[in-house]
Amino acid sequence: MAILDPNKDFHVVARAAIEKNSSQFAGVQRPLENVRYELEMPLQLNPDEDPLPCRETPEETAEISKIFSAQLHALYAEVASFQARSLASIEEANLAPIDGEKGLAVHVTIGGQSFDIYPHCHHRLYHARRLTLQDPETLPTLPFVHKLRILTANNHDNPYHFGRARPISLRVPLECLVRLPSATEINCPWLWERMPIAVGGRTERHYTRLWEGPWRDARHEFGAAVEELDQRIPATLTKAKLYFFRARALADEDHSRVMPNLVYPAARDPVSLGLRTLATKLEELSLRAFITDDLFPPPEAPWSRMRRLYIEFHPFRPDGSWYFDGPDGKNPHPQGFIVSDEHYPPHRDTPEDKEIDEEWNYHPSADCGEPQPDMFRTEPVTDKIEPLISAFASAVKNMGALEEAELFTYLWWYPAENREHVVGEPFPDTSDEGVYKWGLRYVSGNAAGKGSVQWQVGAWRPSQDVMMLFEELGEQEYLDFEKQERRRIKQDFLE
Questions:
Q1: Collapsed DSSP state (helix, strand, coil) of residue 119
Q2: What is the rounded distance in angstroms from the CA atom of residue 415 to the CA atom of residue 412?
Q3: Which superkingdom, per the lineage (predicted)?
């Protein structure tokens, strides 16, 4: 693999970005409050006389990780260097010093993979192996940084939101965070998880395949990283926004396909357990993730600091099963499959790759139609959903500082044309396609009384034992479903 400018000095790039931000704040006579850094993937060279092979090799991914790491190290080093500059030096350069009272927010935007010549093979546009941070323990400590934000640049030249995106190891945000001992907030609008998309063409399905092995491994890495780094996560951390999957991608899913068991060989979901540990430090958590009831803490270890809790869970469970069935109990694949060696991307080009490329090159437009979603799971599976909401109720009961908590998901009714249309409440007929919010919201009471629980679950009701858990929290209120043609997404969910 050849790249443009392999010896680029990333310290110069980071220094320029910091000074640009500082100059902008100086222009409005304010101290420097945030640094925005564009972390670019190296431009891969793809000459006609020696084109890139279809598949990126592990060695190439390691080289990209090396360059990715060099940029993060340079950013941290240059932020430390800027803070160490004398005030006279900063003022002489017409720059703004870091806000000594508020501290500094660091925003890192990770760019997509780019090429000098667009690759003939689309395998190069969809990445499964995650980039890692090399030597994270040597990152400088930045005690004046109060917020870390890591996001992925929006991609406007690919039909899929994940096209050209380089997924990052779920260890990386934590490895960056522990070098910020005074941080109060971490914000990650997309942590590179996604569902398989519903495309009809063979070549598109092949190119955009979500490889189950790297997906499973990334989730186990996150759980291990929290366990390893827990004692080094800043005690000052109070707020986290962690969105593992993107809301805008939900409309194009296929809920009929068999899904992987991302938990095995562990007994419990590593991501849910890791988030449980992380949340013990927090006052506010906004989460969108694939979770199990392992997320919620036991009574003996409550989230005693939590004031605001917002959890959006996906109807898909990490063990490969689902929280919801289709109407009349239709559930094509009630269990997930075990991830094995065959669920990792090949290290080298395969005969099938060549066949797919030839098919694509011969008639590319024939395989690029509209997405073909099959989204029909609208009925709660009692033995799956009740443990989740029961754990939520028990956790809420033991959060003494809690003001508000919400546990919700979105149910989509967009069945495939060839699916037998058997409908159930709240979907009275097949013309009622749309999306419905399903969930519960707890609001604490004042000093004189109990709180209240709002249910937005249609006609479904839990068992009496589960209902009693919620009745202990306060009054029960039942809200009607509100149909949306498309999901309404807040701006921060778009990123």
A1: coil
A2: 9
A3: Eukaryota
| Amino acid symbol at 457 | V
Asked if residues 172 and 132 have their Cβ atoms less than 8 Å apart, the reply is yes
Alpha carbon distance 145, 17 (integer Å): 16
Per-residue pLDDT of the chain (495 residues; tens, 9 = 90+): 688 777 899 999 999 999 999 999 999 999 999 999 999 999 999 998 999 989 999 999 999 999 999 999 999 999 999 999 999 999 999 999 999 999 999 999 999 999 999 888 889 999 999 999 999 999 999 999 999 999 999 876 677 889 999 999 999 999 999 999 999 999 999 999 999 988 878 888 899 999 999 999 999 999 999 999 999 999 999 999 999 999 876 778 889 999 999 999 999 999 999 999 999 999 999 999 999 999 999 999 999 999 999 999 999 999 999 999 998 788 889 899 999 999 999 998 899 988 888 888 876 655 555 667 888 999 999 999 999 999 999 999 999 999 999 999 999 888 887 765 555 555 544 456 788 999 999 999 866 668 999 999 999 999 999 999 999 999 999 999 887 766 665 544 333
Amino acid at residue number 433: E
Cβ pair 261, 343 in contact under 8 A: no
CB atoms within 10 A of CB 228: 13
Beta-sheet strands, E only, within 302-403: 308-313, 324-325, 337-338, 379-380
Residues 6+ apart with CB under 8 A from 121: 52, 53, 54, 353, 357
- Tokens at residue 416, please? 């495939």
On whether the CB atoms of residues 289 and 271 are closer than 8 A, the answer is yes
What angle, 0 to 180 degrees and rounded to 10, lies between the N-to-C axes of helices 58-84 and 10-27?
A: 40
pTM for this entry: 0.94
Could you give the angle at the alpha carbon of 165 between the alpha carbons of 161 and 171, nearest 5°? Answer: 120
**Structure-token pair, residue 364:** 């590319």
The whole-angstrom separation of Cα 335 and Cα 234 is 39
